[in-house]
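Incident log, support desk, overnight shift.

02:14 A customer reports that sequence design results differ from what the structure should imply. Their input is reproduced verbatim below. On-call engineer (initials T.W.) acknowledged and began investigating.
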């Protein structure tokens, strides 16, 4: 017995006859004609190894081609086992899209041998992914298919177009090289010419070959002629009951075709087989028609109606009511026959009724007896039939015949099939599973069509039976090859008296030796030209053209043209009411092809007439060839002969063809050198600081800073123009040192409360009346850095102005309220004061300041000092809207009392220390403005105001009072509109699907990130934290070295997502400043695909000829308050794709434009109306207005567009008519809050968008003009929007679950009724327990919303058995994990705020997550929670640092060491 391929050892050695063929294949192109099972594939592996070794380093690959998908895996695995080469497999299901050039390039560079179907390789050649000259060897499996228009022949045509020196070696394999035994020589010569190869057979080792490929015994098995009547079959047959001839014409069942097949099946299989076919076929068709009717009905009912239907409430409309009564009748009849025809499930325990011989044709009876007599314990057999439905029925019948019921385990093996309405074919996976079961002997009989004749690896069978007559030589040889045991039998079943069939079989059988002899004795000869195709006129073939795209080498032929046109049309977007778009051919010897009107081309470019030809088929090819060539010139096909930008693969160019850089290597957290002005420099600049207009101090920096202003601590703070500082050359170093010491002193008193070791990069110093640095005041102050104990001279004039400190509580400044000579440490504290728990103030202070073995010494007498505590300013956050985070204490502020002996007052005037208190905000503001100016200059941005640009460059992770989230949300809409308008006008001949692909590539995060990286945008981002626990404005090195040329940059770390967000935010800032025109300028310099900086009106305006709108649109124009100047736009805007018209294309392009326009108008409206709304609130409010239900309501209720819509589809018209009353009654609040409960036909929302798109084009793309009209139309809807709109039930439930801490929640789909054959219910599972549902609805989004509502209700109800705290412990577990993490984090040292870890905004696409898994649900819920908890960008107050919580003057434990050290220094200083 020959071994199956899967069982071949890795050490398989060639036989001598295989070596003979291999040696001859090395010398030239050959076709190995060897019987099935003789090891042809192994010979090919010998040749593959030899070629791979010979051509190493030449960059060529090896192609192993197969005619059928099922062979790809089988042959690929065998080659991989027998060679050490890299082998890849490709079939329709595993191959890349042809437009994914990067994917194919990577694949073709990543392997040595490619096993694929012939059509894929032909497509690779056609679209210039791979050329024939890049291949060193092509192996054609089952190469006898190289004829007529098979893909093998198409490949060889390209082979003959390749220069001889660049052609690959050809190796063909077949068991039947001759199709026509009557003219064997010509048939053989044709195959040889087509493959440029010589047919060879074994000459020297014939005996060895015979031993490994024995011939079976062949028998003709005759059977009697079938009777006209089967008396024992039940008289009430299904055929009679169905009475298909009287079906109403509106029921779309092809009765004539079914009855014809019924008669054929009756003749072949008998009455039961015929009835089984009828039952299966009609049942499948009836079920599909019922399903279509139900889908059409339930898509447009409310959730409440649908639930009533499911629960069978009397008033509910049943979707089955829309089903034709005759279909229900047929379904009922079929149900009564179910047990008779269908095999019950094994679990049921029931046995199907046996099928007696009297119900079978003589042919089936003879077959059954043959199988019975030839059965053995190891029996395996194949029965070949011609038709799929015969195979299906026969495989069902045989195991139910009594004499075979315990012997035969049968399955069908058929091809894929193309007509889905007939008995369905088998998918590749089902074919593979069936073959596997046969190999493993789980079944012992295959009933197969021609799919099993060739290629597939079967074990040798005991018996092979041709149930139907042999039609050609190839079928005879291939099917017989399955019987390759020495004891195998090949049985030909023929009807008694069928002399024609007998003669044909004898001709095949007797001519085979002669046919083999025709090629066995031949020797190799020179290559020959390719043969003309059988059936095609030689002159037609001679006149064929071949077009090669010069830039790419892509090839257009007569054979490929029709397929390319079909592919183009299949990509035109359509809804379920529009049939698949296809080209239409008319004419005979001169053909005309009409392309669908949905292609956005002028009418004259949709029709192409080909040249005259001598056959109808050739004329059709010629017309298609001319059409594709013309469409390529129009850029409808690109230079690779693919529909332009229709790839579903990854795009690497934006809409303008500019390459999008690879950003895959950029880490999630980006480290970047950010522009920063705070450096030490030889040149110093003085910026006078004004407090409420009064010059109060001088800010000295190493960088010239632009003037800035802000409000902080209830003061209006501003700086003047910078002026260069000229130091005394003799004392320059000491003056620098004095300014640094003074600044350290001021920072210690007012900001940090601790020392600073690194050199400072800015100084805040007192100034003279002439606004120069007051070095005398500096020298006096730094002589007493911790203040003076000498209170002589301090009087009432200093009340409210003098700043002092308690030496026992370093870092907690106070302002003098009054001197208290009336109090001493021995005085009794006032009732209610913090000291009142002790007998004297002294007792309180001793108790407070005693530490371990230290007890402070406090006098019993002496005056006291009463002061008002000042809160050190440890945050640099400032507001753009004059809000303040802290203020100096005023009258009525709480006071504290200390002994004067503890207190030291600062030698710093009030206006200076007040300047220190606002210094963090001032430095932050100066940084932001300087960085914005640098960005504007470097990026060549238009004149966006400083505040808007700062906002655009500030990241949310800074927790500042301003960030770019609002502008980013606005910019997203601006980006979309700018890109869409540009693409709409640049590509007038591309349909919506192609434009959408271009848009997605242009606005994707990947593109934005790549453009940001190209422009080094990261150098200008504001990512610093607002907390100043450690003073940030210091040099990075303590060596004090001052460079001549300083790099003004600092290392920062932030999420890479910040880059793309800032790109959109800058666009939003430009729009907010100067409208669309400035946004176009900004987009151009940022590399956005927006067509350049010129205004749209200049670029695109005044293009269309003016035409009067039809009277049909008079009311619409009146409602809009706008008069159209281009009437043809209105006609296009109301034309649905189903309405084929030569006067106008469909509305899809205008819809594409209108969608972006409305989105922009709504977001612009919300941004301006709600300045305090967060980004998430803006986005959610926008999504409630920019959605299908809202647009459909406006289309019907406001504009009456359903009365204008041009439709040619009954189902869509009915669906619209059903929904119009609902949309007329619904109000704006309902559609905003509960829009998810409505699912109107998409055509209604589409036509609203297209009308607005037409309006935009008509007014020459004047945004403000179009926006005014749209806002008027949507006024009532927009007025309903607000930032605090409730979320949809699913989002609300997810956020609620995330807040509750439950991480084991998921959704689950199910069916309410088996006859619907679709998922229509949704449940909610919590910890694998169903807590809500199944909730039925017309569509799954509604069902999910209803389930979420119910789940929230029961989980939040303490009386419910599913009360969440009762069934979930996730929150407790999370709390324990968080506590452990906090303890671990607390053990780590505190880092500098500027480089401290910040909130990482991980770039997660929620649309890629699955909420039907607990992990997916939890992740989506967390993202939604983060969005909803986002705080307004200009919220009142600032983040509170750890040092801010010290108003009670209690020294924190972590500061105790610092405080004691400073106290000791004060004592020394004293």
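02:41 Re-run completed on a clean worker. Output:
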């Amino acid at each position: 017995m020959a071994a199956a391929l899967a069982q071949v050892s890795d050490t398989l050695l060639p036989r001598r006859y295989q070596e003979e063929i291999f040696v001859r294949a090395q010398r030239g192109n050959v076709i190995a004609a060897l019987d099935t099972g003789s090891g042809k594939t192994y010979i090919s592996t010998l040749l593959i190894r030899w070629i791979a070794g010979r051509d190493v380093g030449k960059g060529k690959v090896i192609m192993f081609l197969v005619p059928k998908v099922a062979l790809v895996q089988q042959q690929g695995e065998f080659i991989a086992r027998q060679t050490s080469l890299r082998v890849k497999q490709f079939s329709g299901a595993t191959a890349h899209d042809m437009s994914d050039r990067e994917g194919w390039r990577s694949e073709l560079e990543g392997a040595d041998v490619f096993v694929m179907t012939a059509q894929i390789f032909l497509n690779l050649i056609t679209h210039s992914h791979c050329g024939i000259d890049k291949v060193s060897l092509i192996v054609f499996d089952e190469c006898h298919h190289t004829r007529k228009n098979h893909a093998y022949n198409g490949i060889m045509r390209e082979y003959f177009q390749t220069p001889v020196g660049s052609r690959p070696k050809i190796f063909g394999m077949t068991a039947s090289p001759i199709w026509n035994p009557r003219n064997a020589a010509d048939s053989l010569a044709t195959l040889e010419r087509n493959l440029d190869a010589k047919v060879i057979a074994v000459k020297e080792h014939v005996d060895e070959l015979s031993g490994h490929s024995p011939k079976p015994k062949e028998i003709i098995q005759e059977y009697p002629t079938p009777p006209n009547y089967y008396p024992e079959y039940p008289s009430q047959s299904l055929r009679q009951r169905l009475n298909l001839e009287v079906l109403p014409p509106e029921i779309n069942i092809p009765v004539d075709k079914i009855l014809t097949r019924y008669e054929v099946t009756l003749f072949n299989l008998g009455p039961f087989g015929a009835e089984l076919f009828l039952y299966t076929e009609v049942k499948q068709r009836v079920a599909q028609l019922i399903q279509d009717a139900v889908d059409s009905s339930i898509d447009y009912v409310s959730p409440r109606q649908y639930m009533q239907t499911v629960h069978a409430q009397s008033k509910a409309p049943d979707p089955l009511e829309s089903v034709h009564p005759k279909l229900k009748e047929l379904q009922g009849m079929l149900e009564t026959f179910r047990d008779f025809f269908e095999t019950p499930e094994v679990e049921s325990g029931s046995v199907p009724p046996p099928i007696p011989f009297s119900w079978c044709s003589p042919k089936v009876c003879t077959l059954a007896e043959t199988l019975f007599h030839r059965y053995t314990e190891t029996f395996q057999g194949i029965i070949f039939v011609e038709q799929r439905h015969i195979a299906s029925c026969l495989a069902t019948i045989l195991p139910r015949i009594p004499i075979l019921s315990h012997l035969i385990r049968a399955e069908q093996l058929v091809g894929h099939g193309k007509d889905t309405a007939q008995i369905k074919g088998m998918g590749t996976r089902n074919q593979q599973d069936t073959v596997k079961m046969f190999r493993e002997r789980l079944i012992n009989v295959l009933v197969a069509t021609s799919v099993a004749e060739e290629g597939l690896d079967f074990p040798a069978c005991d018996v092979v039976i041709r149930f139907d007559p042999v039609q050609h030589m190839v079928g005879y040889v291939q099917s017989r090859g399955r019987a390759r045991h020495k004891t195998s039998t090949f049985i030909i079943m023929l009807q008694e008296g069928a002399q024609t069939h007998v003669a044909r079989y004898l001709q095949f059988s007797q001519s085979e030796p002669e046919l083999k002899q025709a090629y066995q004795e031949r020797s190799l000869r020179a290559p020959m030209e390719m043969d003309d195709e059988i059936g095609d006129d030689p002159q037609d073939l001679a006149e064929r053209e071949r077009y090669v795209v010069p830039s790419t080498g892509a090839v257009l032929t007569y054979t490929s043209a029709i397929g390319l046109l079909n592919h183009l049309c299949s990509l035109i977007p359509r809804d379920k009411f529009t049939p698949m778009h296809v080209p239409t051919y008319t004419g005979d010897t001169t053909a005309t092809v009409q392309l669908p009107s949905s292609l956005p081309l002028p009418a004259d470019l949709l029709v192409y007439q080909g040249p005259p030809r001598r056959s109808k088929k050739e004329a059709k090819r010629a017309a298609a060839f001319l059409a594709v060539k013309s469409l390529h010139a129009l850029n409808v096909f690109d230079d690779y002969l693919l529909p332009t930008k229709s790839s579903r693969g990854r795009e690497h160019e934006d809409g303008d063809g500019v390459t999008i850089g690879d950003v895959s290597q950029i880490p999630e957290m980006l480290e970047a050198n950010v522009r920063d002005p705070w450096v030490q420099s030889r040149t110093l600049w003085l910026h006078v600081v004004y407090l409420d207009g009064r010059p109060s101090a001088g800010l000295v920096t190493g960088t010239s800073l632009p003037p800035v202003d802000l409000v902080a601590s209830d003061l209006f703070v501003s700086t003047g123009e910078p002026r260069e500082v000229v130091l005394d050359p003799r004392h320059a170093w000491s003056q620098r040192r004095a300014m640094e010491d003074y600044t350290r002193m001021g920072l210690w008193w007012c900001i940090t409360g601790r020392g600073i070791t690194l050199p400072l990069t800015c100084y805040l110093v007192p100034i003279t009346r002439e606004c120069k640095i007051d070095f005398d005041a500096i020298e006096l102050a730094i002589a007493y850095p911790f203040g003076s104990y000498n209170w002589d001279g301090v009087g009432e004039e200093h009340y409210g102005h003098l700043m002092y400190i308690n030496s026992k509580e370093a870092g907690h400044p106070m302002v003098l309220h009054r001197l208290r000579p009336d109090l001493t440490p021995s005085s009794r504290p006032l009732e209610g004061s913090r000291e009142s728990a002790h007998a004297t103030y002294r007792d309180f202070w001793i108790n407070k300041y005693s530490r371990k073995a230290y007890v402070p010494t406090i006098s019993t007498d002496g005056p006291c000092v009463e002061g008002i505590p000042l809160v050190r300013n440890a945050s640099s956050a400032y507001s753009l809207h004059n809000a303040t985070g802290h203020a100096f204490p005023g009258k009525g502020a709480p006071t504290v009392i200390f002994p004067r002996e503890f207190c030291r007052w600062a030698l710093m005037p009030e206006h200076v220390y007040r300047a220190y208190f606002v210094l963090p905000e001032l430095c932050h503001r100066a940084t932001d403005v300087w960085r914005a100016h640098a960005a504007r200059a470097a990026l060549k941005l238009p004149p966006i105001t400083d505040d808007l640009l700062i906002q655009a460059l500030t990241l949310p992770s800074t927790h500042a009072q301003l960030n770019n989230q609002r502008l980013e949300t606005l910019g997203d809409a601006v980006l979309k509109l700018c890109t869409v308008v540009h693409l709409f006008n640049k590509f007038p001949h591309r349909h919506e699907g192609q434009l959408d692909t271009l848009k997605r590539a242009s606005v994707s995060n990947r593109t934005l990130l790549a453009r940001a990286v190209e422009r080094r945008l990261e150098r200008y981002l504001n990512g610093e934290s607002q907390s100043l626990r450690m003073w940030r404005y210091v040099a990075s090195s303590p060596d004090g070295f001052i460079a001549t040329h300083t790099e003004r940059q600092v290392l920062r770390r932030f999420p890479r997502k910040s880059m793309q967000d800032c790109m959109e935010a800058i666009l939003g800032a430009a729009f907010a400043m100067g409208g669309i025109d400035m946004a176009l300028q900004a987009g151009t310099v940022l590399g956005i695909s927006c067509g350049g900086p010129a205004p749209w009106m200049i670029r695109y305006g005044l293009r269309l000829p003016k035409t009067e709108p039809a009277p049909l649109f008079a009311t619409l124009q009146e409602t809009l308050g706008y008069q159209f100047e281009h009437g043809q736009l209105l006609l296009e805007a109301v034309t649905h794709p189903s309405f084929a018209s030569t006067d106008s294309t469909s509305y899809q392009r205008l819809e594409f434009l209108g969608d972006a326009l409305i989105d922009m108008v709504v977001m612009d409206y919300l941004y301006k109306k709600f300045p305090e709304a967060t980004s998430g609130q803006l986005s959610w409010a926008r999504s409630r207005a920019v959605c299908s239900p809202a647009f459909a309501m406006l289309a019907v209720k406001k504009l009456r567009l359903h009365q204008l819509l041009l439709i040619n589809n009954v189902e869509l018209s009915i669906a619209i008519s059903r929904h119009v009353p609902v949309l007329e009654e619904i109000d704006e609040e309902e559609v905003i809050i509960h829009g998810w409960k409505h699912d109107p036909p998409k055509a209604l929302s589409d036509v609203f968008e297209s009308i607005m798109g037409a309006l935009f084009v008509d007014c020459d793309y004047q945004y403000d003009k179009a926006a005014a009209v749209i806002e008027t139309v949507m006024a009532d809807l927009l007025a309903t929007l607000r930032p605090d709109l409730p979320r949809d039930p699913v989002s609300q439930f997810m956020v609620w679950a995330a807040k509750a801490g439950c991480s084991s929640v998921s959704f689950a789909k199910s069916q309410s009724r088996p006859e619907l054959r679709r998922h229509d219910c949704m449940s909610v599972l919590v910890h694998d327990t169903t807590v809500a549902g199944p909730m039925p609805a017309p569509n799954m989004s509604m069902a999910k919303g209803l389930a979420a509502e119910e789940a929230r209700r029961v989980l939040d109800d303490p009386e419910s058995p599913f009360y969440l705290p009762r069934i979930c412990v996730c929150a407790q577990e999370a709390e324990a994990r968080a506590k452990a993490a906090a303890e671990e984090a607390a053990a780590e040292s505190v880092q500098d705020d500027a480089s401290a870890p910040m909130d990482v905004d991980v770039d997660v696409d929620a649309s890629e997550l699955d909420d039907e898994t607990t992990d997916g649900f939890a992740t989506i819920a967390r993202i939604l929670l983060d969005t909803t908890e986002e705080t307004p960008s200009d919220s009142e107050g600032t983040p509170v640092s750890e040092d801010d919580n010290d108003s009670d003057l209690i020294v924190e434990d972590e500061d105790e060491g610092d405080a004691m050290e400073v106290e000791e220094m004060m004592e020394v200083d004293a």
